[in-house]
Task: inverse folding
């Protein structure tokens, strides 16, 4: 039996284009001899649909698209396994199911519902969906297909130390005689997830002695990036096929004649983060209707990395860099920004903000009784840069990409309505130490980011001789504390016990907790770590957070 893995990039609510892509891939797969074409989770409506599921018209269009695909299945010599939103016919429970349908010969042959509905991190599926009460194999042309949906495969009692659910759908399907486990998925990327996902699925295969197929979504939808990497494991849990990473792909495999074991492509964490950011930027702009991006170029490493990623995602002709020097800006920073723009081949403008700073100072001095100074003066500069970038945005129809990293956002080393101003925070989930690693990766073949940008001490240049380390611990120390406090949920005492200075840890924790109000006003960012700021980290603003 030849099965096609149709790893496609869908858009939430784009029923017409999603269905067109399903038809296109189904015909291509059938032409290659596939008898069954498997698509990702919620293929028709796109994933994640969030509260669009509350709209009756959204559900109706999803069902109408399914009906069209049922009719289409009569015209193609292959069956389709397609994700959609099903209505709950009962008068109790949530009104919807996360479902997958088997379509063939102009008929809807079978429907299966998702059992395990995640409610952690970025997921909130129990908000809308009713969990399935039954797990049943699909009998199809003499084969017994164990079809499950994403999270249904993530609860092996033997593989995991802790369990969120008391049901193991894969085990139940295997015990019913499933000859293959097919997991249709929308599994978002974060660093370290790829080997974990493969190891878990390999455990299923080896435990139940059946091949396992994962078909994963690819593409960016808002803050989430899906890496694809659909795969096939043989009955011993060995990898025999892996689809492309961060690209659409169509792969056909014969279950009766599986290929030889392959070695997984070497894992490269920074390469993956880079590619995830590129895809996230590309899809965010395209799916939101933007073609151009504008970036404030300070001559620093954050804006340089952001600009390089934007050029890779959009093309150099679609990116504008704007330098906005003040009286505190060094000439070398302006030179570094100009050199970066030349290396990238992007349009570049220099708009000094000193006239605007002078006008604001003159305007505010009578009200204050003295000229703005200290943090007031610093933030005036940052906010006038934000106003300038938004003027370019309005004039050219371009989206402003903010350039702040996760380390700065964590401790509030950023200015509301200033450097936080923009439509997409590209590296807001990238710690500063990883920003340097990204710069080295971008420069691996030729110098794109000027060497001086990488080697000079980072500075906001909002006051004379300012350096980041005047206000913050060294970034390697800061990032190590942030990972423990934000991603691992360690307490202050636990972090100190690992050898970190008490005063430093307490100060960092205090800064994290007091700056939640800033983060909740930040532009959406692209998730690349296990715990990103945004939808996956819900912390109250007005709260006393104990250590």
Result:
């Amino acid at each position: 039996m030849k099965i096609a893995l149709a790893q496609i990039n869908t858009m939430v609510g784009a029923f017409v284009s999603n269905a067109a892509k399903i038809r296109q891939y189904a015909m291509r797969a059938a032409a290659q001899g596939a008898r069954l074409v498997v698509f990702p989770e919620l293929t028709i409506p796109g994933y994640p649909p969030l509260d669009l599921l509350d709209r009756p018209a959204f559900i109706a269009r999803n069902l109408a698209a399914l009906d069209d695909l049922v009719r289409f299945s009569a015209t193609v010599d292959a069956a389709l396994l397609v994700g959609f939103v099903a209505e709950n016919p009962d008068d109790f429970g949530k009104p919807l199911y996360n479902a997958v349908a088997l379509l063939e010969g102009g008929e809807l042959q079978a429907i299966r519902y998702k059992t395990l509905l995640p409610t952690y991190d970025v997921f909130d599926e129990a908000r809308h969906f009713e969990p399935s009460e039954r797990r049943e194999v699909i009998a199809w042309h003499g084969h017994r297909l164990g079809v499950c949906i994403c999270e249904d495969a993530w609860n092996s009692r033997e593989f995991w130390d802790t369990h969120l659910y008391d049901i193991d759908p894969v085990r139940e399907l295997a015990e019913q005689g499933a000859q293959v486990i097919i997991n249709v998925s929308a599994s978002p990327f974060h660093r370290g997830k790829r080997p974990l996902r493969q190891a878990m699925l390999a455990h299923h295969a080896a435990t139940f002695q059946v091949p396992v197929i994962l078909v994963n979504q690819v593409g960016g939808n808002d803050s989430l990036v899906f890496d694809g990497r659909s795969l096939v494991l043989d009955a011993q849990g060995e990898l025999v096929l892996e689809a492309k990473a961060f690209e659409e792909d169509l792969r056909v495999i014969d279950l009766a004649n599986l290929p030889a074991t392959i070695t997984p492509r070497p894992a490269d964490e920074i390469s993956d983060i880079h590619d995830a950011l590129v895809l996230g930027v590309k899809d965010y702009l395209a799916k939101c209707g933007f073609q151009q991006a504008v970036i404030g170029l300070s001559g620093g490493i954050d804006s340089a990395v952001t600009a390089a990623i934007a050029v890779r995602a959009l093309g150099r002709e679609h990116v504008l860099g704007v330098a906005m020097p003040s009286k505190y800006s060094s000439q070398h920073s302006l030179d570094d920004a100009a050199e970066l723009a030349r290396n990238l081949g992007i349009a570049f403008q220099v708009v000094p903000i000193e006239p605007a700073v002078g006008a604001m100072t003159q305007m505010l001095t009578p009200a204050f009784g003295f000229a703005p100074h200290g943090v007031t003066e610093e933030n005036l500069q940052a906010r006038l840069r934000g106003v300038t970038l938004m003027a370019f945005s309005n004039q050219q129809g371009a989206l402003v990409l903010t350039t702040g990293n996760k380390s700065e956002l964590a401790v509030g080393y950023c200015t509301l309505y200033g450097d936080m101003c923009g439509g997409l925070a590209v590296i807001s989930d990238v710690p500063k130490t990883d920003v340097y690693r990204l710069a080295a990766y971008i420069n691996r073949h030729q110098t794109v980011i000027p060497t001086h940008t990488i080697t000079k001490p980072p500075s906001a240049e909002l006051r004379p001789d300012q350096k980041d380390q005047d206000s913050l611990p060294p970034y390697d120390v800061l990032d190590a504390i942030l990972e423990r406090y934000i991603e691992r949920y360690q307490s202050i005492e636990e972090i100190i016990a690992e050898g970190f200075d008490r005063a430093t840890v307490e100060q960092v924790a205090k800064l994290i907790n007091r700056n939640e109000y800033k983060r909740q006003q930040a532009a959406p960012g692209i998730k690349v770590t296990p715990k990103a700021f945004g939808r996956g980290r819900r912390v109250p603003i007005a709260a006393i957070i104990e250590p």
Q: What stands out?
A: The mean pLDDT is 95.
